[in-house]
Amino acid sequence: MEFRVRAVVEDAKATFRDRLGELCTRSGFTHFLVCQYPNCGTAPLVENIVATNWPAAFLRGYADVDIRSERSFLGHFRSSIALIREVDIKTPPDVTRSLSGFFPCSIAYTLFTSARQQYVFVMSSPSPEIDDAAIGQAIFETMEYLARLTERRPLRPDISQRETECLFWAAAGKSSEDIGAILCLSSHTVNDYLKSAMKKLESINRTQAVAKATRLGVI
C-alpha cells in the first residue's frame, strides 16, 4: 500500500511539473518553483518543494533557506496574499556567472487549496518586465493545476488525532516536555506518539516526520 501511495504521488507531481513547463512555454516564462507553505515552525525550502525546474546549483544555494523567515522574500506570505511583482532571486555565491541571467524578472504569489493548504508559486521571465496578461494567465492556470494535483493525492497515512497534535506542536518548535504540558500528557507518552507517527511517515526523526506531515497536509 505504501509503495502504491508513493507511486501515485510521484506520478501526480510529474504531471504537475509537465503542465507548469507547458505554461512557461506559452506564457513567456522560463523557470518556476512551487513549494508548500507550512503554517508554523521552520520550513527549509528544499524540504517543501513540490515542483521546480530551477538549476540544481541554484537549489543548493537555497538549501538552508527557511521560507517562513523574514529574511526570505517568501516570508512575505506569512502575513499577506498580495502578489510580489519584483522578486529578488539572488544568485548563490558558488553559482557560475553564466547562470546569473536565468531570473532577470520574477513574480511570486500564493494559492490555497479547498483544504486551506497554502502553496507559493515563483515564476520567472527573461524579459525585463512581465506582462499583466501573462501574470493573469499563470495564476488562472496554476489554480487549476494545483486543484488537480491535490485532488489526485492519495489518502494520507492513518495518523491519529493525538499524533497529529504532537506533530503540530513539534513543528512549532516545542520540546516533548512542552508538548506534554500543553496536551496534559507525560513527555514519555508524547515521545510514544511521535515515534508512532514517525513510523507511519517512514521518517528517521521528528524533523523529517514534521516535514513529511506538512507536505501531505497532515498538519
Notes on the structure:
The chain is of the alpha+beta class. It is built from 8 helices and 4 strands. The longest helix has 26 residues, at 2-27.
Top keywords for this entry?
219 residues; alpha+beta; four-stranded antiparallel β-sheet; 8 helices; 4 strands; 46% helix; elongated; disordered N terminus
| Estimated share of beta-strand residues | 5-15%
- Major sheet: 4 strands, antiparallel
Provide the spatial order of strands within the biggest beta sheet.
2-1-4-3
Question: Which residues sit in consecutive blocks of at least 5 with pLDDT less than 50?
Answer: 1-5
Protein topology:
Blueprint: H1 2-27, E1 31-36, H2 45-48, E2 49-52, H3 56-61, E3 105-112, E4 118-125, H4 132-152, H5 161-171, H6 176-183, H7 187-200, H8 206-215
Antiparallel strand pairs: 1-2, 1-4, 3-4
In summary, what is this structure?
With 219 residues, the protein is α+β, with helices and mostly antiparallel strands.
